[in-house]
Design goal:
The structure is a homooctamer of 232-residue chains.
Chain A: H1 13-17, E1 23-24, H2 30-44, E2 46-50, H3 55-67, E3 72-76, E4 81-85, E5 97-102, H4 108-120, E6 124-128, H5 137-149, E7 153-158, H6 164-169, E8 176-180, H7 192-199, E9 206-207, H8 213-231
Parallel strand pairs in A: 1-2, 5-6, 5-7, 7-8, 8-9
Antiparallel strand pairs in A: 2-4, 3-4
Helix pairs in contact in A: 2-3, 4-8
Amino acid sequence: MYGSGEFNIDAGRDHRTGVPEVVIAEGKTDEQLRDISLEFIERTGKVIISRLKGDRKDVLITALSERFPDLRIQYEALPGFLSAKRRDCPERRNGGRVAIITAGTSDIPAAMEAELISRESGCETLSFHDVGVAGLHRLFGPLKKIREWGADVLIVAAGREGALPTLVSGLVNIPVIGLPVSTGYGLHGKGEAALFAMLQSCSPIAVVNIDAGFVAGAVASRMASRCSGSRE
Amino acid sequence: MYGSGEFNIDAGRDHRTGVPEVVIAEGKTDEQLRDISLEFIERTGKVIISRLKGDRKDVLITALSERFPDLRIQYEALPGFLSAKRRDCPERRNGGRVAIITAGTSDIPAAMEAELISRESGCETLSFHDVGVAGLHRLFGPLKKIREWGADVLIVAAGREGALPTLVSGLVNIPVIGLPVSTGYGLHGKGEAALFAMLQSCSPIAVVNIDAGFVAGAVASRMASRCSGSRE
Amino acid sequence: MYGSGEFNIDAGRDHRTGVPEVVIAEGKTDEQLRDISLEFIERTGKVIISRLKGDRKDVLITALSERFPDLRIQYEALPGFLSAKRRDCPERRNGGRVAIITAGTSDIPAAMEAELISRESGCETLSFHDVGVAGLHRLFGPLKKIREWGADVLIVAAGREGALPTLVSGLVNIPVIGLPVSTGYGLHGKGEAALFAMLQSCSPIAVVNIDAGFVAGAVASRMASRCSGSRE
Amino acid sequence: MYGSGEFNIDAGRDHRTGVPEVVIAEGKTDEQLRDISLEFIERTGKVIISRLKGDRKDVLITALSERFPDLRIQYEALPGFLSAKRRDCPERRNGGRVAIITAGTSDIPAAMEAELISRESGCETLSFHDVGVAGLHRLFGPLKKIREWGADVLIVAAGREGALPTLVSGLVNIPVIGLPVSTGYGLHGKGEAALFAMLQSCSPIAVVNIDAGFVAGAVASRMASRCSGSRE
Amino acid sequence: MYGSGEFNIDAGRDHRTGVPEVVIAEGKTDEQLRDISLEFIERTGKVIISRLKGDRKDVLITALSERFPDLRIQYEALPGFLSAKRRDCPERRNGGRVAIITAGTSDIPAAMEAELISRESGCETLSFHDVGVAGLHRLFGPLKKIREWGADVLIVAAGREGALPTLVSGLVNIPVIGLPVSTGYGLHGKGEAALFAMLQSCSPIAVVNIDAGFVAGAVASRMASRCSGSRE
Amino acid sequence: MYGSGEFNIDAGRDHRTGVPEVVIAEGKTDEQLRDISLEFIERTGKVIISRLKGDRKDVLITALSERFPDLRIQYEALPGFLSAKRRDCPERRNGGRVAIITAGTSDIPAAMEAELISRESGCETLSFHDVGVAGLHRLFGPLKKIREWGADVLIVAAGREGALPTLVSGLVNIPVIGLPVSTGYGLHGKGEAALFAMLQSCSPIAVVNIDAGFVAGAVASRMASRCSGSRE
Amino acid sequence: MYGSGEFNIDAGRDHRTGVPEVVIAEGKTDEQLRDISLEFIERTGKVIISRLKGDRKDVLITALSERFPDLRIQYEALPGFLSAKRRDCPERRNGGRVAIITAGTSDIPAAMEAELISRESGCETLSFHDVGVAGLHRLFGPLKKIREWGADVLIVAAGREGALPTLVSGLVNIPVIGLPVSTGYGLHGKGEAALFAMLQSCSPIAVVNIDAGFVAGAVASRMASRCSGSRE
Amino acid sequence: MYGSGEFNIDAGRDHRTGVPEVVIAEGKTDEQLRDISLEFIERTGKVIISRLKGDRKDVLITALSERFPDLRIQYEALPGFLSAKRRDCPERRNGGRVAIITAGTSDIPAAMEAELISRESGCETLSFHDVGVAGLHRLFGPLKKIREWGADVLIVAAGREGALPTLVSGLVNIPVIGLPVSTGYGLHGKGEAALFAMLQSCSPIAVVNIDAGFVAGAVASRMASRCSGSRE
């Protein structure tokens, strides 16, 4: 009933909005995921999939490779992020610069999702991990490097109390996007406390949903692309 | 005990972060507000105050004018936004372009706060109001003009179900900041539903807290300043 | 202690309310489910079961078929919807027309539950899937066909930010039922954000609970049956 | 800045969706309310306003009457519902039948809002009040009359535990819309408990937001108009 | 470290409060459960355990039987309720009468827990299941029998919208205890909606926590014991 | 439209359920309150009203006294509880004994509402106030007196952390009804924390909604009446 | 009924727990407040009252002064904190040292409540205000002074995102008590976000309820008294 | 990409704050956990890990022992707490005294985590388990012993309604830290009710997050170390 080719995909989104459409694996059956992926490759030359974990990845890669033997496939295990492109699918490059900081080790998967979609949108990225708020001295070095690199926008990922983006935004004049992560425990410990705190931040930050690395990366890419566009 | 001149204000924030500090009138006594304001003017040549309503405004203006007879004072009643500057306080201009759209009439105060802080940060602004989601045809004209104007970033304010930023972000390649507004009623009707929806948006948007016009404007200004800096 | 035939089923509900009773498999043991099902078939000639997944389906079908060898059994895997009818159980047909739209692939199971119960109640159905809000252009074609078909009522299923029913209801004069779906992640990401947004919708929609495909279909069927009754 | 005639009103909504647009007085200043109202009357011959309480009503009526001396104005104090129409504005009549039941006295304002918008949309209405769930015997008489009258749809308003719509829907084959009302106290006592209960109802009902009399009436009117359209 | 005999059990609670202490299996390791059980049997001649599911039951029974070969063990699988008594442990009988009604099949486990603890406290019980609120006619028979039996107190278990206790309490003069059950789905669908509705009930009911069959039974037993004590 | 005599009051509830109906003043207009009150007096010889504060009380008493010059009116200011009875309205006496304990001074209004409705239902009452949990020694005296008095049921009112009912129920074999009160501040400080804690109580208590003195008193009265009935 | 001298006050708490009992004015009538205060002075020589605002203060002071002409009365307006002592009531001094830091001006009232109760418990205090997290440089000076002063415990008051206690606790080895304050707006903006963040803090802090200056001061005093006791 | 030695660990935290850093196993992959642990041992001579359960423990111990054959490893299964120290890593001893009480058996794992971190910070500990609030008599013995031992601070762990810390704090002058535990069921039954109640406690307690044994122990250690430091 929901066979290959019948999906109503939005193949023009990439062109229209500057960020490629990403298929979320969660909530779809293996069959749906395969058919949507094939449709995307057929019509746009590539497909990008997020939150693809465990065996499902292997099943999917096998199916895609059978139909398109020339696919270049890249997969990052921590965020479960897969991109599959035909040989002739052009690499995108726009010169935008997206910097990313994480507060702790557990924030890396969400941050990597942001980083990967930023690159897929054509931006350059620079990441620093484990720059926690419980030991402030670890923060200043990375911030200095980020300024020198000339970041157009700065994504700061943090779980628990989510204080890091607030701190960072008080120290720089680069726009900051807060990415709350579902680490923590107890009351509102699945990233909610971090999200609430970022929304209440004393220093100005824009926020995305918990673990929404894709959204952080997509918004950051639009910003950075715009800046780099002006640079040219 | 908390007399004039004793406040520990952050006079360098403007220079450090690119956005002037804004004093929130709510939660402060009249005396505190007056003393903080005088301190800011003394040290930076200006003070900007948000959420200043009713009689408190008149009391404050009188007190400030007595001490500083050369103040230029501007006040917008809907958001309760006041700026007071000494004659020699330089106007800031950086060429950044911040566009603003509201879904309905009730969203205007929050949107104006965003607009005013954008201007105080040196950006140009372009606003369209009442572009509701219940009648889609009203949206396309403003979007066209915003594109032609060359907006660097787009703030979309909406209450109720908060669908407008989602729609807009699916149609443009400009970074979109969703500004949820505390209109609505019933379950999560003080802007929470709008905020939740924006966080779950299918198209990428960064979000600020409910009625956080200041934050939306501050983040947007940093972005736009950055782009315009690249333009030069 | 709770043997076959002892269940206090409401065999007259179908006749009284125009919609067949549906047994929810969740929260019942296999024994309870079997005994209730047998009781229904015994007394009404059929049984309809929702949210029946995995092995439980096979166990149940075997048990029912043994007792009633003439059963016609239909099963849809995505929503886990099973109907089992004796040969002489009359097909119901009332001419009501229920249209269904989904925002994304993940919304299909809930939408199918609504569709199947509509058909069981005697209505005709027309469905369009994947008509997302992030790419508006995909919406207009289906809406046009639904109008031409003469839908009596329109069910719109959406997860994430749940904006689609709001959009649709602003464009048609058909009554719209919003069906929030438990897709999404992060804050209120199990369909709550979609539900809250639909309750706050700027354009008038009636709402059912998250994933409540049965309820959406049952209410829609009552409406459509009523309209078609008037048509005759 | 936001002067008369500049509002971006959706004058075609009535024609497009079958239900007149209603201006919510809450969240608008007196000036905004007046200007929007004048704009509506100018372009459509009428304006309908909800949640208009106290002095604001008198201020508005005076302003409207000055500009349009031929206005027919109707005002119901309990819901704060005002309609103002020019003499030549045609009365609408479509033969749809909307029945309304309230559980208690405190539910009447929301129910009246639903009733009034139903009439403005061209439907006939029949209301029964105070049919509480704590004394079941009071329910059966009204239900019998509603059936005999031939209601196309039934709005059931209830606060506190919100059980009445569930009961009613188990006894009829008319589509039921549950209208939760902000009566009650303590935990989730502003209508939330009623709303939650209606969403979980064992018998099928569609639901609107707390105190959303307008939405209940608007959806009901679309349904009833459709049925009556089929009757002709 | 936490060996047998070291637990600080409250062996006198039964005598002091009229209701035997019940050990909740959840949240304890197998070792803790065994040691506490042995301690109870040692000091009071019996142990009663709730929420004991799956293999844990068999492990425990084996361990207890080894140490006390004369144990009489009773186990009900649906609620996971086990009582183990030495031969010489006196049966309690006080003549109190506790009636129990469930709205649906899924409510039976919680209701059985209430029933079993009532019996362990010395009361007689009378239960009716599946007396749903969606088909009122099923309710009147059981209520009549309960009145004739002379119930001292009435426990009404319901999930989903939890309307049944409200209905029942409006029809009788027996004290009613509402027992919300974790059936349902979507918003507040783990019994919360039922609990909230019972707390808001128009007719007077006292409430216990979701699935708190033990508490409902314990409070009911105290009441009924008191009444029957007066009868003697 | 909603004139005197038209209310659909449930005059038989007192007889049917053993507890008189109580009209809640909140959420009704002065006119509605007056008309409902007159209707009750007309048909049952009395009316009982709760949550009647300030001037509304005087307005109502004047109106009732004019129509029924022989009314005996009693009013308690703290809970805002009024009873008005015609001379020939018989006093009810059933010998049930309801004891009431409050944790602090702020809990007295809710406790008094429970006490007054218990008396109106024919029970005797015994109250002890300010028996806080922060100083345990204050508790033992009152508990001893309550036991000696022979209380059939015990209502324990507490705000803040609501620990008192838990303590009490561990020390007696009388059924305990927890009455959470809306004292406190900060997170869940309007009585919610007390309610949640009572629902989780380690010792068995039945609970009513926050500030629901009426419900506590009504359920307690049914229990006590039952016990005293058995005593005769 | 609740006359002077009848209150069941806990006059020995001060001696038993090391912290004087504080009467919360909120939730008590003027008469209750007066009678409790008189009772405390009568039996302990003093009374301490918190959250006493506006006219209520003057009414109370007048009543207390009439009965006890020798009272020394101190009142701090920001937190509404009053202490009234007879001449012969001994001053307490124990050498404990409680330091207090606030993030912003709006946090001062709660912090002052903590400071005042610390002094009433016999400790010395040292406060620094307006040490916000958006400008880190303001923090280091106060921390240095606090270390040099030899603080036994450190209370950190913060609203909004509540990040300051987390930062501070990562920089010192003094125990830190987080005091969340009800400043902020939008989602969880009444101090909840600050509380949640402090509970999730990466660096160890103990937390009290929102605006619970009394609790913070009382716990801190116990700690500091203990340390200073060891110093002697 | 995230190999051994690349983690940005805060090796100086122990020295700076008086409490060793603890690595939370949850939310990290086995590889990350191993590399961080090795890094810690390399640089500080030890690593402490919490919430390490099941097979992960064995995998980790094997890896650590291979690299550092001289490790002394201690593991407590209930809290999943592991410490691994090189032979030459000095034992810390500071003479602080931390007492710990649990309400029930299920609270032991969180309490043990607090106890173990207290010891790792150099304090002595004294624990009493199962001192429930439903049988008050069990409390007085342990409290007496704790006073005699000279505890500097008292951690009270409780789930369900969380009343025990409130009771204890009203009876002693030792500072009390409430540790809510995720036992319970139904509404807010994962420790939230206990946390909320502790925050609202009538007697002063400082609180940590649910199951935050580490935080309770760390704050208590800082306090006790300070007191013992003064003792010397």
